[in-house]
Design brief:
By secondary structure, this protein is of the alpha/beta class. The protein has 18 helices and 26 strands. The protein has an 8-stranded parallel sheet. Strand 18 and strand 19 form a beta hairpin. The radius of gyration is 24 Å and the shape is globular. The protein starts with 9 loop residues before the first strand and ends with a strand.
């Protein structure tokens, strides 16, 4: 703790400082000592804490905000993607996709038949013409003996060539999994397409980077996050590879981000009640290995959540997100669609009784449950289990369950979040789909359900807490573009084409956006006593930006640049 409050080590004066405290106070100066904020107020008040050793930084009217907290992303995957074969989230034909991959293969110095090629930044749902799938047969046309995979931007689909399937030890005799799909041709042969958990398991089985390579990826990750103004991140699928790398940076005193993690327990990890005990014990050991013993201004690591991957994804062709009412499916052609009611409800990957026990067991062990729930069927299932916990286990009322994604909610569910003290973790940018995706959703869901697509303000208006999570690298790392989408519900407009507004919810205000990405995200992580706002006694996690988000238009928000990022009172990024 701060040992002497009589003077400050550094002060920031003459600024517009949005604190994100309970009253959304704006002040003009703060004082810092030992990595803590020791005072907030006017410039004249703060100057009383200055002595001959104090570093005085005159903000000259510039804006200071609490550091951004990204409460759901996959940072190490994102870092690996930045340094490999990448399709740039482009809508491409099969032939254009193969050309880009072949060009990379031709110049890649790694050319052994055992050197994996991982192709990232691929939009399965936007392969042209829409509805087209890339398969094993397509990838086998590449001029290479290497194992090649396409890993979709949403991390729910992996396409493997024949060499990769051999390395995964998958063939026509592989049984169907419970938590996803293994694609097959009409004669039962594998078509190379793996969906949901089988895709992630296959990806995880690819030989990992060595320790030195992993540390370099971790350095890249924290730099890119700091450059965006992120001071705290929550890895939504924590694993040893990335936490070893970040732990090494911490030991070198080179860690520049607070990293939290959610340890995943898959359906295969918990088939029976006895498996639940083993899985929770494994998570405890993992947390003990990678969690700092106490919170302090110096950035560190903490495994404080358990992840449950409850359903799949909403977009066609997967449509594995769990719905309360069936999907509408196209029985016509792409040119002449004819969407009709089906009996397809999507997937729930856990046995319902097992999931209920897992949520309780994780909570009893002191972890906040964090659930992947894309659609209203999965949301309803999880809210029912949380209600049981609230009613039957009152000693667990301090637990903060969070439901991630929530792309399609049902109208009655918003208030249930509030009543059950459940947190909605949302990716703002998903409220800005392309015109084509909006049309597909409308046809696939029908007009009534379309009205609850990509909600955010509806949670806030019902009194629920909303925490921001970018889900990078599902989308490019661009936090301030994400904030702009939250305030306009309009995404990127290609040259010569205007993207429509998604009219299924109101726009967020800048205050709502910033609170979701600061203090309310800290609340989700049970860290609001340390971070998330600029208040006396909290860690000095701060950013200085080049424009005041409270005085510019919503469309300008995406152009904000970070001048400085400060973690625990120390400068970790400066715009050059």
């Amino acid at each position: 703790m701060v040992t002497d409050h009589s003077y400050a080590e550094s002060v920031y004066i003459n600024g517009y400082i949005y604190t994100a405290d309970s009253k959304n106070t704006v002040c003009e100066a703060i004082a810092i000592a030992d990595g803590y904020i020791i005072a907030c107020g006017s410039t004249s008040q703060i100057k009383s804490l200055v002595n001959q050793d104090t570093d005085i930084i005159d903000l000259q009217g510039k804006t200071m905000l609490p550091g951004i907290i990204d409460a759901h992303l996959h940072p190490f995957w994102g870092g690996m993607q930045l340094s490999g074969c990448h399709l740039d989230y482009a809508s491409l034909t099969v032939e254009d996709t193969l050309t880009k991959i072949q060009n990379y293969l031709d110049r890649d110095p790694c050319n052994s038949s055992n050197d994996w090629l991982q192709v990232r930044g691929w939009l399965r749902q936007e392969v042209l013409p829409l509805g087209t799938d890339i398969t094993r047969a397509d990838l086998d046309r590449l001029q290479t003996a290497r194992p090649v995979i396409l890993f979709s931007n949403d991390c729910h689909t992996l396409v493997a060539n024949t060499r990769a399937l051999e390395k995964f030890a998958l063939d026509r005799n592989t049984p169907e999994p419970k938590d996803g799909k293994i694609g097959r041709t009409a004669d039962g042969e594998l078509n190379g397409i793996l969906e949901d958990a089988p895709a992630m398991r296959a990806f995880d089985s690819i030989p990992a980077l060595n320790d030195k390579q992993a540390i370099e990826v971790a350095k890249l990750v924290q730099h890119e996050l700091n450059k965006q103004g992120v001071t705290t991140a929550m890895d939504a699928r924590a694993a040893e590879l990335q936490f070893n790398a970040f732990k090494a940076l911490s030991h070198q005193d080179n860690l520049t981000i607070r990293l939290f993690g959610a340890a995943e327990i898959t359906p295969d990890d918990a088939i029976t009640p006895s498996d639940i005990v083993k899985s929770i014990h494994k998570v405890k050991l993992f947390a003990e290995s990678y969690s700092d013993t106490k919170a302090q201004p110096k950035p560190g690591l903490k495994i404080s959540l358990v992840k449950f991957f409850v359903d799949g994804v909403l977009q066609a062709p997967l449509m594995t997100a769990s719905l309360l009412k069936p999907y509408r499916i196209n029985q016509g052609s792409f040119e002449q669609p004819n969407f009709v009611e089906s009996n397809r409800l999507g997937d729930l990957y856990y046995d319902n009784a097992i999931l209920a026990q897992l949520i309780i067991a994780a909570s009893e062990a002191g972890f906040n449950p964090h659930m992947h729930t894309v659609a209203d069927g999965a949301i309803e299932t999880v809210l029912n289990h949380i209600q049981t916990m609230r009613e039957q286990y009152p000693h667990l009322n301090h637990i903060r369950p969070s439901l991630a994604h929530n792309e399609l909610a049902a109208p009655h569910q918003y208030k249930r979040f509030t009543d059950l003290n459940a947190i909605a973790t949302v990716s703002f940018q998903w409220a800005g789909p392309t015109n084509e995706m909006m049309e597909q959703f409308n046809l696939m869901l029908g007009a009534e359900r379309y009205n609850d697509l990509e909600p955010c303000a509806k949670f806030i208006d019902a009194g629920a807490k909303v925490a921001f999570g970018s889900d990078w690298p599902i989308d490019p790392l661009n936090e301030w573009y994400n904030f702009k989408v939250a305030m306009t519900r309009t995404g990127y407009s290609p040259v010569g084409k205007k993207t429509k507004r998604l009219d299924s919810d109101r726009n967020l205000t800048i205050t709502e956006v910033l609170r979701a990405a600061t203090i309310d995200a800290a609340f989700m992580l049970s860290q609001e006593q340390y971070i998330g706002s600029i208040e006396t006694g909290k860690f000095a996690d701060l950013i200085i930006v080049d424009k005041n988000p409270f005085t510019i238009s919503a469309d300008e928000i995406e152009h904000i640049k970070i001048i400085k990022t400060i973690v625990g009172g120390k400068l970790v990024y400066k715009h050059e």
